[in-house]
Design a protein that fits this description.
The chain is mainly alpha-helical. 75% of the residues lie in helices and 0% in strands.
Length: 182
Amino acid sequence: MTAYPIPRPVSGDVVDLILDDHRLFETLMRELRDSTADRAAARAALAAVLVAHGEAEEQQVYPRLRRKDAIDTEEAEHGEEEHAEINEALLALLECKGTDTQKFDDAVEALNEVLQHHITEEELTILNPAREEVSDQDRKDLGATFLEIRGKHLDVGVTVETVRALVEEAHREGVLPADEEE
């Protein structure tokens, strides 16, 4: 299995760091669509960085931007809902046994749809206000905190059980609607 390197910067402006991850997500999604790529490795890398990124944003970035009045509660909650939708689509992708099936391709397409939607909205409604309304030093400090949380999650790693637990928690908390089958 080919290892896809996940950058581990040690400092930076939180906006730039988040944007760098967004570009990494897009690169890994291209790999997942490429039938000649090591899709299993791309899937593993994407899962690890998606979960680490989302958890760091929810634990530190969104709350701090709310306190700085750069975003409101509704924008933060919407971002968290979209993370839950991404995790749900990621779980479907991780549950695919093979990487050369129509089910896998469909799961890639579904994940790409929710991920691209989130990236666009976050860059417009959260990152732009952060650039405009949060000082350079505060963005740098928040970048360090973001990287610390992101790094801890990357160190632990992600399994299908990790993502399943995140999705189940989102359902319990009402962030995701109750399963229609229940």
